[in-house]
Design goal:
The protein is an alpha+beta fold. 37% of the residues lie in helices and 40% in strands. The chain has four helices and seven strands. It has a seven-stranded mixed β-sheet with strand order 1-4-5-6-7-2-3, covered by helices on one side. The longest helix is centred in the first third of the chain and has 33 residues.
């Protein structure tokens, strides 16, 4: 009898947790609208998980960049695209983008990327899909000097193509001297 009662209580608790979890997730959007934020965002804060096929577009693009296949990398970009980086801004045609990326990649003998994670988000009110990436890029220049940079990239995908690539970077502190 005690085992049956324990089993029923356990099942009720699990069912309650699942119901509550579903309610909390669904209620987030409703709660967001009722909150009084101290700041107003420039962009929408109403988002939902996006299609991971968009992350694949960006990751394949970056893999081709790492491999030195610049034309393959550029296939992921729209005919006109923006690239925003540290003290850098580009907006132009795919041909100009290919030249710029070729110049950037040619400065390194080797490049690798180690990803912490990525996330695809869809903003229904904007009809925008963004892929955010967190990773470390390691590179060796033509003289053998090694460096690494931590990136957080936000990539806008429209019609299956990269329209905007917004790159934020953090340089690592030099190793402590002994």
């Amino acid at each position: 009898m005690k085992q049956t009662l324990l089993l029923l209580v356990l099942c009720a608790a699990i069912a309650g947790c699942k119901s509550k979890l579903g309610t909390d997730t669904a209620g987030t959007a409703d709660t967001t609208a009722k909150l009084n934020y101290p700041f107003t965002p420039k962009y929408s804060i109403k988002w939902q998980p996006g299609d991971e096929k968009n992350a694949l577009i960006v990751l394949n693009c970056l893999k081709k960049y790492v491999d030195g296949d610049i034309k393959g990398c550029a296939e992921a970009f729209a005919d006109t695209a923006e690239f925003i980086g540290d003290q850098f801004y580009f907006k132009g045609s795919k041909d100009s983008l290919i030249k710029m990326i070729t110049d950037m990649r040619s400065q390194s003998a080797t490049v690798s990327k180690e990803f912490d994670s990525w996330m695809t988000t869809y903003y229904p009110d904007k009809k925008d899909t963004w892929v955010t990436l967190w990773y470390t890029e390691k590179m060796t220049d033509k003289n053998g000097k090694k460096d690494s940079i931590y990136y957080v990239d936000d990539v806008l995908i429209k019609d299956g193509k990269i329209r905007e690539y917004d790159e934020k970077m953090r340089r690592f502190a030099p190793p402590a001297k002994k």
